[in-house]
């Protein structure tokens, strides 16, 4: 199977290395910067295509979209028109209309579109989901989600990221939906900015820290917090508290936290540095699942519409933050039929 990777940046390089190491897969790398694609291909044992367009015209069996977010909708549409199954890093697009247009293209072509929410493939999240679905926690009354980056991203990234809710917390929104099988009906979000990077975020119209109260359709309360300024390290955790038990995802020897208790565990000698390290096995598992889906051996584990549902929550959070009020989350619309 020949799989093209469009985008040779940080996440594209990671995906290319994983695919190049999979049995029965030939990886072809393309980027608007051909020299960068060629260097990546040489490094991971793949082949470099002369351009992204050449991936679609060069006999690929599937495509992995890891280019800049602004290019996602057009690349999804290009893959659909070529009849190619596509894996796309989140988000489908930065707004709802763009997301709907891209989903419409894939639906009209009948092609597979898998979205990159890698937490669905993390061992801890999967174990917690199984425990919750098996009733081991009893009635779950509270969920707490934490996502903390160790340092702010570059200004150029912030300007096109869509903001903390759409870029970062959207992973938590998807994970909550996937774990519980419930929908978010209402949000109340606040944001804050301060410290040495305050001007960076203000210029981007963003915040460096946010807190959200989510209400699920069964009344379960969820708190989700995120920050770009967690100097202790990269931290992703989720607590699920029920009447019978409480489970924690992401609590291990590398969790970047120091216990204040005299008998508590010592601080980690090597805390998680970033998302690629923390979720490396999950990234591999999601691409293995994509290959299996392309081969017809398994269903699509994360259809593109899941991205729309999580984006609607993020959009409601942004409105809530700006207007300082609770906001209802609308039902995900069905993509309109593609025009003839």
UniProtKB/TrEMBL annotation:
Keyword Oxidoreductase carried by entry: yes
Keyword Phosphoprotein: no
Name of a matching Pfam family: GFO_IDH_MocA
Highest rank taxon of the organism: Bacteria
Region annotation (Disordered) ranges: 320-340
SUPFAM superfamilies, A to Z: Glyceraldehyde-3-phosphate dehydrogenase-like, C-terminal domain, NAD(P)-binding Rossmann-fold domains
InterPro entries with a match to the protein in the record: Gfo/Idh/MocA-like_OxRdtase_N, GFO_IDH_MocA-like_dom, NAD(P)-bd_dom_sf
MF terms (GO), sorted A to Z: nucleotide binding; oxidoreductase activity
Domain GFO/IDH/MocA-like oxidoreductase: 125-243
All copies of domain Gfo/Idh/MocA-like oxidoreductase N-terminal, residue ranges: 1-117
Keywords: Oxidoreductase
Stated family: Belongs to the Gfo/Idh/MocA family.
Name this polypeptide is given: Dehydrogenase
Source organism (scientific name): Streptosporangium nondiastaticum
């Amino acid at each position: 199977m020949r799989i093209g990777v469009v985008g040779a940046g940080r996440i594209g390089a990671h995906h290319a290395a994983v695919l190049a190491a999979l049995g029965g897969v030939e990886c072809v790398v393309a980027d608007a910067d051909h020299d960068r694609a060629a260097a990546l291909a040489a490094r991971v044992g793949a082949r470099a295509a002369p351009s992204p367009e050449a991936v679609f015209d060069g006999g690929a069996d599937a495509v992995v979209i890891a280019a800049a977010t602004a290019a996602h909708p057009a690349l999804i549409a290009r893959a659909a028109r070529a009849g190619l199954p596509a894996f796309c890093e989140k988000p489908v697009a930065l707004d709802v209309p763009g997301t709907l247009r891209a989903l419409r293209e894939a639906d009209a072509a009948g092609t597979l579109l898998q979205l990159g929410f890698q937490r669905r493939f993390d061992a801890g999240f999967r174990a917690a989901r199984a425990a919750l679905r098996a009733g081991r926690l009893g009635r779950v009354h509270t969920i707490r989600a934490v996502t903390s980056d160790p340092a702010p991203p570059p200004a150029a990234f912030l300007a096109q990221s869509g903001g903390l809710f759409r870029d970062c917390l959207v992973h938590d929104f998807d994970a909550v939906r996937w774990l519980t099988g419930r929908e978010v009906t209402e949000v109340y979000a606040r944001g804050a900015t301060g410290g040495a990077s305050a001007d960076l975020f203000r210029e981007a119209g963003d915040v460096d820290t946010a807190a959200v109260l989510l209400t699920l359709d069964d009344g379960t309360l969820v708190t989700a917090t995120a920050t770009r300024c967690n100097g202790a390290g990269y931290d992703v955790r989720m607590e699920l508290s029920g009447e019978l038990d409480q489970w924690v995802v992401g609590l291990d020897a590398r969790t970047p936290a120091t216990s204040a208790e005299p008998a508590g565990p010592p601080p980690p000698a090597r805390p998680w540095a970033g998302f690629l390290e923390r979720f490396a096995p999950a990234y591999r598992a999601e691409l293995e699942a994509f290959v299996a889906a392309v081969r017809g051996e398994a269903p699509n584990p994360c259809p593109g519409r899941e991205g729309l549902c999580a984006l609607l929550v993020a959009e409601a959070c942004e409105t809530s933050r700006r207007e300082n009020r609770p906001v209802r989350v609308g039902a995900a619309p069905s993509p309109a039929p593609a025009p003839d």
